[in-house]
Records
---
Amino acid sequence: MIWRGPARASFLTVSTFLTLISLSTAIVVNAQQQMSKRYPGGKNVRVELRNISGTIVVESWNKNEIRLVATIESKNALVVPKQVNECLIVDVMGDNRGRGDVGDINFKLQVPMNSSVDVETRRGNINVSNIRSGLVRAYVSSEGDIELTNISATHVVAQNVIGNIFFDGEFSSGGTYEFKSNKGDITIRIPGNSAFRLVASSPTRQIKLNDFWNNGFKTQDGRKVVGDVGDGRSSVSVMNFSGQITFMRK
Amino acid sequence: MNCEQCQELIHDLIDGSISQRDEFTLNTHLKDCLDCESVRQDLTSILTFCQAHRGEYEAPPNEQALWLRIRNVIEAENGHRVVPQTDSRRPSFFGRLMGQTWELSLPQLASLTAAIVLLVSLTTVVGLRRWGGAEGSHPVPQVEASNVNDRIWQRRQVINYWNQRVELNKARWSPEMRETFDRNMRVIDEAVANSLNELNRNPHDEISEQMLNESLNDKLALLKEFSDL
């Protein structure tokens, strides 16, 4: 095959372009660091994570230990997990104070099913699944979706400013459940036989109780709904400033 | 020996009328007590000075008249305290009450206690009926409105403080973080504005007031959390 002048030039240009793309991809991949650690867990494991920016995924597994995987975008960022008794504390805010912008840090935590989970981030999504314990708290200071799936905990808190909140789980007897968003939809999916006392507020009058509505509910011109479902054994508070509140039956 | 006894004996020591035993005790105390030693030195200096300058000053012509004048000046300056019997001003009721010794018998004490308990109970009941009960059943709109405005004003002062801290740190943030913050702040400000508009239309709207409080809390929380970055 004979390469003439213009063909040879085109070939060289395309080759150089592809090489540059490959190199830049490699540099980006190398810039990200990944940290993976395992910690022993007992019966009352508690996980506390304070992130600045990035996603947090917490899920249960059938081992009596905690596995933490952090994908760190910036080389400046520090992640120094500390274990005190049965509590694993990851304080990205504290570890990186005064270090400037540390970019996104994405966490994946695998914990025993009965672990208490208390996670927060300034921005980013939080996803917690398959937890049966005393506490599940997911707090996003600004924007990020919160998804709590298959949760059975005595105290649940899910709060953000912008973003959707989805809860799929059970309300335990005597438990407290708080869901709050400024702009985003809040969807709560629970068994049909759930019993709880509800206080739901939405200035835009978007409260849909569906199967859980009963005539015992008191409503203040559609912006606030207060009442009991069943014997009202648990306490549920839902507040949404400009999104929809929806209760769904499992 | 204490300092009071010591200072009495210092006079005897200076006069030369102290016994040997007292002198020994006194000297032992003076070695340990700087204050008494200082008193002794002062008195000795005065005495030495007077002895050294004896005869240099003439006695006043009428010594008794001089002392009377001195006494008059002191009495005039101190008023009734120097000669209480001759003071024309009577002390106040409270002054007399506090000045006299209180001696109460057991029945008197019991009666006084019962009277105080009764008085406090009556005051409490009247106070609760007048202010406590009325608050829930008969709200005063003007007072409520001013309370809401006061609370908003106070909260805004705190928010301003945190806002300044955030503005100082903002330059260090990434552009994405700045955009996120501003976007979220706009959403909260919108919620605050909506609640305020609703409250302007209906000052007694509890839901709007609750929403306003929540929005201001959210704003404060957002500012505090981002001021750390």
---
Amino acid sequence: MDMSYSPEEQAFREEVREFLHTEVPAEMRDKIRLGKELTKDEQENYHAILNAKGWLAPNWPAEFGGAEWNAVQRHIFEEEAAMANAPRIVPFGLSMLAPVLQKFGSKEQQDYWLPRILNGDDWWCQGYSEPGAGSDLASLKTTAVLNDAGTHYVVNGQKTWTTLGQHANMIFCLVRTNKEVKQQEGISFLLIDMNTPGVEVRPIILLDGTHEVNEVWFTDVEVPVENLVGEQDKGWTYAKYLLTHERTNIAGVGFSQAGLAAVKRVAKAENTNGKPLMQNPHFAARVAQVEMDLMAMSTTNLRIISKAAAGEAPGVEASMLKIKGTVIRQEINDLARRAVGPYAMPFASEGLEGANDQIPDPHEMGPVAGDYFNNRKLSIFGGSNEIQRGIIAKVKLAPGA
Amino acid sequence: MNFDLTEERQMLQDSLRRYLRDKYDTAVRNKILESDSGMSAEIWAELAELGVIGALFTEEQGGFGGAGFDIAVVFEELGRAGVVEPFLDSALMGGRILAACGKDDMVEEVIAGALHLAVAHGEPDSRYDLNHVRTAADGTKLNGRKAVVMNAEAADHLIVSARMSGQAADTDGIALFLVAKDAPGLTIQGYPLLAGGRAAEVILEDVEGTLLTEDGYKVIADVTALATVAQCAEALGAMETATHLTKDYLMTRKQFGRPIGTFQALAFRMADLLVEMEQARSAVINAAGFFDTAKRDLNISGAKNLMGRAGRLVAEEAIQLHGGIAMTQEYELAHIAKRIVMADHRFGDTDYHLERFIELSAA
């Protein structure tokens, strides 16, 4: 048992910290700190800064131009990025699609798409969920039918919850290519150019007024057969592979640490009944409890990471981390809104017109109540926490488990 | 013992529920939310005509109600429909302060729906402490800053608390003044609120006010007690809507070939919410029913703390049991959940009332 970072890992942490503070523009980090949305240009700029350093694709093998960091290095980067208020890397091309192409794509697909992802030539989004297929993803109904000439698939249907689809020019989709077989065996994985006639993106405004997700509609959209990944009807296998990648950094330890530090900062400055809020035993107890949980969860996270660094695939532990990690983050969001008291109520959504009013924010916390509501999504998306409990129970209660 | 509403209150509840069901659906309200003023003058006038404001005042004050249960009935219905018009701040708080200060002619106008008020009491560093007033009164000349003042831009008059003597946290020495909206030296910096409506930071620089009372702390404490009952009832109504929407959704949304409410993991959580709803209703009954007794504050703090806990549970679970759909602006639950959770940020939050309850129950 050795819980310390090696000298090399510590040096790496220093390097990352230095890089984030010198290379990432302060205005960008201020925006993140104050809960403001980045523009598409800013996000692409951040990717370009990382790419110039060779750090944009930490999880890719070197042969594809990746940094090939191990799990501990990736964890260090995520932790430092959160503390520095660096933006998130948009994951759809880099950490969702790319691993699938690297494992299941053709040589031509790898040679064409992967460099474009690194260079920022394409903005990818994910076409999985449908209005009728959420937790029950395999029941998806969007169809792709091969034309008579065998040159194109014709796609019809609707995807939803498409994150940042308004910025995207490409979408990877799960589509139904066979209705005669078991649900999971009739699904294919298609790459679709969103500029093709028949593709329409409609915004969904979330409860905090943000536009981060969309509906994507397909009407007789022609997709060249070259854009099928792997084999037809084998898409479910690839999707499951992708979902294991979607769950990296699922614990969000860095976000929680940064959030908790902000809560403590406010609670020391804010007075209630003549003394700092941090000395109110009820509030202090809640802060302490979530901090204890976070300390333990952070170690759980490292235990799983070091296993992964040794080459073991994460299994049911990823589901456990997702549940605990999201519950802790949401609790910190709750503490943050309580900490600022009546000043949690003022709110102007950036997405709406007439949002020029000066919103008082004495503690420079950004829209804490908006964040509280927005982060209710954490326990819903990427396989809801109920689905994760089902996975844990299925594995751990299986005969002989 | 009889927990039924009186015939008059039942009629008021029925007519109010019917009106809001017909006239105040999600689309109508979302339009109001997006408007510059953040409220509808038409809805305000029609509800005043229905007697919504009159029910908040006693007969001596010119109304036809005014007791804890009258207020609870009105605000439960407003909460059920997610009404954003400032009945709580303008009519109830403003009107009852004026009534307590003997301004009968103005109260009459309030009841008619013709006079808008704002109560400018909280300050940037007062949080939920009612005794914390730094704004200074030099005679009738006022200087200071007030925080998150509800309805300030639309108000014809502001009721401003200011200190005539003593230190920032003393209960003595606080007076209330009436300030006209166009008074020189008055600056109102308005902004929208997450759960609808508008508020403002109010800056007073040598503003001339008219003295309402020198016993300001007592008047503010009494009207805040009344407003807390109203806020609890409003949250209860919103929680009713949240649980109804969730129940319906669980039995209509299908995944894995069956309604998701048939999965025990979800059904049991729905059952837990319904248990908490009964607790919440009883807490509001306690707060309203003991209003005119020595147990007023104990019951109010008990209710506000319980509503804070149950409200958070109901709002969060209602969203989680729905899934993604509840995260969207255009779905009714989104607004309702915001009303429920933001209620915790008014008149003292869950922790504040826990501390107050401990103090009162130990006394």
